[in-house]
Amino acid sequence: MKQLSHLMLALPLLMSFVFAEKLAIVTKSSGEVLLMKADSLDYSPNITMGTILEANDKIKVGADGYAVLVLFDDKSQVKLRPNTELALNVTEDVMGQKFIVQLDYGKVLSRYKGGPEMGFQVQTPTSVASVKGTEFWTLSDPNGTDRVVVTEGFVNVENNVSGAITTAQAGETVTSTGTGGILNSPTMEGETPPDPEDEFGQTPAEETPGSDMMAGDSTQADDTATMPSAGMPGGLGGTPDGDEAAEEEDGGMFGDNLAMDAAFGAVTIDGKLYNQLALRPDISFGKFGMGLDLIIYIDQDGNILTEQWT
């Protein structure tokens, strides 16, 4: 029993490894939306709803596409309009952690829901827009001119060339130029881009591969994909090599007492589409064993369904 208690105490730590460097999930996408992984030099074919985004992954949206990302940390949203390219990252300094959207060009709507313990920035080659809970558009021209349109809350905008800083509130727009200029002015009619979900939104069946899943009120995808290994010790997914293989032969951190699989799929419940994350830890001690099937349902806004928990 002492061994079991140690394993149960270690389980939250092991679970955190599963999500290590996982920053966001694609909850909606349409048209041409390409992904370049941090360790790759090429963009992959179109990504779809349910794609997990890690640190330094890049997304490129074509002329006919859009995408909606939800951050795992606080359910904040990042919406990409057509002709947009960005990367995601998290940094930490003396002021704390910051989630960073590195916008190369294009138009992005940020709906930040985090608290004061976690900052949020949209960085372009020309400017940095920093918030602590707000909603704003960042429009970055490849020629070096940015516009930050604030629709809720307050945003600090800094010009990277001159170092000039200004603060804008709802109803104001900041123009930041590649020559160092920065100007705060009232937002003009028609200056705020339309929400891509409102303009390009499609039905869930059109957005999601395997649309036959939508037939019933509670239909689960049969072809759920196993999530890639997060480098878990002690047989928590993936194929070890080198020193890791030798460690596994000796039993790893927890020997053969703990293994875990993770799978991701999609499911409809009462007519609503959810992303399904299944965690299946298998714990053994002596001649006894225990397997768990932990299933989490996340809607397209990043909210977790709790009604079915018992």
Model description:
With 310 residues, the protein is mainly β. It folds into two domains: 1-23 and 211-310, no CATH class; 31-200, Jelly Rolls. Helices cover 11% and strands 45% of the residues. It is built from four helices and 22 strands. The protein has helices at residues 2-18, 196-200, 204-207, 243-249; strands at residues 22-30, 33-36, 52-54, 58-61, 66-71, 77-80, 84-93, 96-111, 118-123, 127-131, 135-140, 146-152, 154-159, 165-169, 172-176, 182-186, 218-220, 225-226, 258-269, 272-285, 288-291, 294-298. The strands form two sheets. It has a 16-stranded mixed β-sheet that branches. Strands 17, 18, 19, 20, 21 and 22 form a six-stranded antiparallel β-sheet that branches. A hairpin with a 5-residue loop joins β11 and β12 (146-152). 32% of the residues are buried. Residues 1-20 and 203-254 have low confidence and may be disordered.
Q: Output the number of helix runs.
A: 4
Secondary-structure element pattern, one letter each: HEEEEEEEEEEEEEEEEHHEEHEEEE
Q: What gap, in angstroms, lies between the N and C termini?
A: 25 Å
Total number of domains: 2
Instruction: Describe the main β-sheet briefly.
Output: 16 strands, mixed
Name of the top-level CATH class of the largest domain: Mainly Beta
Shape: elongated
Q: Over all CA atoms, what is the radius of gyration? A: 22 Å
Which range does the strand content fall in? over 45%
CATH topology call of the largest domain: Jelly Rolls
Model regions low in confidence, pLDDT < 50 over at least 5 residues? 1-20, 203-254
Which whole number gives the mean pLDDT?
A: 75
Counting helices, strands and paired strands, the structural category is mainly beta
Q: How helical, in percent, are the residues?
A: 10-25%
Number of strands: 22
Report the CATH architecture of the largest domain.
Sandwich
